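Standup notes
- DV: blocked on the single-chain target, sequence here:
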Amino acid sequence: VRAPGGPADRLWFYIGKTARCTGTVSDMECVARQRPLIIEHAARLRPRDVGKNFGGGGMLEVWIAPGDSELDVAYNRPELVMKMVHPELEAEHVEALEVGFVGEIYEGGEEGFRTERTLDGRAARPEVNAGMDRTVSADEMERMIREKEKK
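- DV (later): unblocked, structure below
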């Protein structure tokens, strides 16, 4: 979910996962059918970032990423493009039993997952290469040692 126009304008917040009957319902229809539920959950989950755009005439955008693409999103894979589900998309023909939504839950001070994207749904930051060989800087080493000592 994205709350345009505010300080978090370029941030997309992970709100949860959807499920659908393959073959009868598209990804877009699935999300469009559950849009009110998703938006309300987003406003309650992230009241400071998203909630202010909920109910008071503000606009929230709902975007989707392909299924099982969490790591691709986290690593800013350039081939992954999120798509906005337009509010006008008609989905009343979709039966409630054909779709589902599992909302994200934060526990113990978690900040939750977010990603910085461009307005066309592409990664706004360079790709993260997990297996990349590089030298750890002295500052990074000190930070890791401090973190380990805290535990």
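- Follow-up: The chain has a mean pLDDT of 89.
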